[in-house]
Amino acid sequence: MSKYVGQNVKRKEDYRLLTGTGIFVADIRLDNMAEAAILRSTYAHAKIKNIDISKAKEYEGVIDVVIASDLEGKVKPFTEFVEFTLPSNLEQEIKPTIKRNPEPMLAKDKVTFVGQAIAIVVANNRYLAEDAVALIKVEYEPLPVLTDPYEAKKEAAPVIHAELNNNIQSHFEVKVGNIESAFRQADYTIKTQLKTPRVSGNPLETRGVVAEYEERSSQLQVWSSTQVPYMVRSYISKLVNLVEDNIRVVAPDVGGGFGPKCAVYPEEIVIPYLAMKHKRPVKWIEDRLEHMQSTRHSRDQVHDVEVAFKSDGTILALKDHFLLDNGAHNSFALCCAYNSAAHLRGMYKIPNYNIVGEIVLTNKTPNVPYRGAGRPEAVFVMDRLIYMIADKLNVDPIEVSRKNFIQPEEMPYETDLFYRDGTHMVLENGDYPEGLKQALNIVGYEQFRQEQIEERTKGRYIGIGVSSYIEGTGIGPHEGAVVRVDSSGHILAYVGSSPHGQSHETTLSQICADEFGVSPDQVTVKAGDTSLLPYGVGTFASRGAVTAGSAVQVASKRLREKFLAIAGEMLEVAPNDLEMKEGKVYPKALPSKFVTLREIALAAKPGPRSKVPEGMEPGASVTHYFIPPSVTFSSGFHVAIVEVDKQTGFVTILKYVVIHDCGRVLNPMVVDGQIQGGVAQGIGGALYEEIIYDENGQLVTGTYMDYLIPTAMEVPVVEMGHQEFLSPRNPIGVKGVGEGGAICPPASIANAVCDAMKPLNIKINSVPISPNRLRDLIQLAEAQ
Amino acid sequence: MSVFSIGMNVNADRIEQQNVVSVALNVNGEKMERQIEPRLLLSDFLRDDLGLTGTHVGCEHGVCGACTILVNGESVRSCLMLAVQADGCEIKTVESLSSKDGSLNTIQQAFANNHALQCGFCTPGFLMSIESYMKNNSKQPSDEEIKECISGNLCRCTGYSNIISAIKEAYSSKNSQ
Ligand code: FES
Ligand code: FES
């Protein structure tokens, strides 16, 4: 019964955002509200000898200045994020070493990265708070700084956190098949090192927290620009020692997340504490310079990889040892690292596989998952290898891909690995060879090859690069929905997964509207508020549509059935003989004799007028928690056509094509928007974006002048094609789509650049492919 | 407020807080006079003093364009201007775009039709840049010109393609009116 699912329904979110009436956390103003500013470390690694806050405290308009010692006994230190610890069967299987490494709220005796919070000033307004921050004097004793993970790993290296004994925070290994014997059977092997640098997700809205404590009812109200309000609530409760139900965390309009807002940060604990302490609302809004330093970064992996293959291109085995430079802390267990290991083989059948991952700590900002979360790194490795194999065998890379694809008839395909959620990793469906074919048709591959030859003779370097991905999406453990009809007959759907650009209010209302046979206008979706339902998880890891969408569908369907049963009582007709449409329920045989949703909702109330059938609970509401059996696998192909200016090393993207399978498409306009936006971020990673630290651990790329976010000039209009293999792992057949766009561009663009420069045999082993780097490679190749 | 604005009073262990000045200006058609600190940024003045929170602050160092407003008809980054500099000026913010009855103007409507926003944080800045461009350029621009027009605004969500479509649609619906 899908009338609205699958349609380009216009967004319900837009009106407020277009008229400036949306409410982001910085827009919240409360009576008597104080504002906070934070003093952050200017050293990457140093002992704190002394902090002098006396002048700051005396400054007019200052309410409080807190340092680590002031929090002792009041705010507990962070524990690790249990939400990301490994399920026990996976733990059994890979027997990882994971050392606990939670971060302090405020640095006490020592700082371990530039940007780490040391002191918080609360004042009557932000200007005064920043004045006072400038009056705090910290005496540092510099310690040796580690910025290179290979150095940090060495036995003789200074240890950042003494209690961990060394700087290797985690270690794990995954093995499939028999790597040694496979390598012995190979005709060729290639050994190389591939690197994906550190980047920053950089949502356009920075982080921010507002907290207000109401003494009368002991209620703590917190607004935070977060992807995970429930997680924020749970840690405030644990660390500030409050009854959980007395805390309400709201994620209002959130200006992008992309992963970095999927952690709980010290400010989200301490600002609420300060609001309670001073019985005044307190607001803290991060500025962009703080954001670049202290909001968590991501990626930063180096893979030492070796691949064994036959002369016909069949890949026999792959061996990889990689380091993830996680900065000064890791509270996310093996999240990105294990994702990389699980996804590295992608769509390819590689029966013998051995990967060792190590998470190493350095004096940089801690890392967290960011759009793709370990997959772009893995795809960069795999798809560069495909091109290197093709070079070695002197065949078109497409042939190497085709040779090694998992075939549609092999679906569902058992990968012989566990997924991060502890289930067997089984790819449920899909047709990869067909997907590639579709992508190559759109770009006109054969024709391009012709054109490329002609253009080369004219001295023009154009190239084509392909990359592919699979992605486990819609991870559990659960997501819930409450669907109810209020006494005015309006339908409400509350979900635990809160949006930050993903269009939940629109797409989830489409799902609900279809169940009730009404227009999405008659459904209001609410999210991002812990008071809506008892449990919630959040929006990250391409999970919103899969988990919240399924919960809304099941809850809507059950409420519809209940309404038919009540209407049956009201009309004295068997529910099976009833129809529900356009807000009315009537006997199929006699549409004029109807009751409205409003009337049914009133009849659902308890009491003497209730028409709820015997044995059924009164009430016009159903709650359902969807628990995915496992993740569902999206997949896709990206093809980039680029032109390289040999003189300047400048890369121009001439065309970009994406074919993807995200199962059932709820709203094509929204899905395409997610892909286009993801590709733009991926292009940033491929060509422009890199977080750079100097040898002293100083952040060199701390502004938007140094950290280059793609503008409209750099991002092409992506041409898209769709495959629609419905997922059997949820009732609506969807697969997640949020991250896919960002996964492939580093690989597809690097491959395209190598393809363009084939006459010079240039190998790109790291991104971003900045003009100066590419120019260096060109010069080097020409000199040979 | 960013470190840049702290920079203005580096050696001020003590700041003249009584130091207020008077500004008179016209904001979204309304004349007003206010007493403000000279160091107050125009973006903060609009958001905090006037409650016009539709103007967003994304970087406070003049790159992202989220804070774009019109000052005497020209698009300006309000995070790079002091409120005192706006004395005597006519200012328009995103709140001025829709009609009194709440209906969206051409460009706002085109944004909604083309899914030109996701999180919507950058949107007010884009709308104001485009508003100023459309006032100054009546002729339908080329794709390159459109990209140029929005190249000073960052959007981290949309990848721009739908914003470009929206601008095209806004021009054609304006021309067909
Ligand atoms: S906030 Fe003014 S340009 Fe970014
Ligand atoms: S819509 Fe989110 S930054 Fe543009």
Automatic annotation (TrEMBL), chain A:
Protein name, per record: Aldehyde oxidase/xanthine dehydrogenase a/b hammerhead domain-containing protein
Keyword Cytoplasm tagged: no
Cofactor requirements of the protein: Mo-molybdopterin cytosine dinucleotide
Classification of source organism: Bacteria, Bacillati, Bacillota, Bacilli, Bacillales
InterPro entries registered for this protein in UniProt: Ald_Oxase/Xan_DH_a/b (IPR000674), Ald_Oxase/Xan_DH_a/b_sf (IPR036856), Ald_Oxase/xanthine_DH-like (IPR016208), AldOxase/xan_DH_MoCoBD1 (IPR008274), AldOxase/xan_DH_MoCoBD2 (IPR046867), AldOxase/xan_DH_Mopterin-bd_sf (IPR037165)
Keyword annotations: Molybdenum, Oxidoreductase
PANTHER family: ALDEHYDE OXIDASE 1-RELATED, XANTHINE DEHYDROGENASE
Molecular functions (GO terms): iron ion binding; oxidoreductase activity
Cross-referenced Pfam families: Ald_Xan_dh_C, MoCoBD_1, MoCoBD_2
Source domain of life: Bacteria
Domain Aldehyde oxidase/xanthine dehydrogenase a/b hammerhead: 19-144
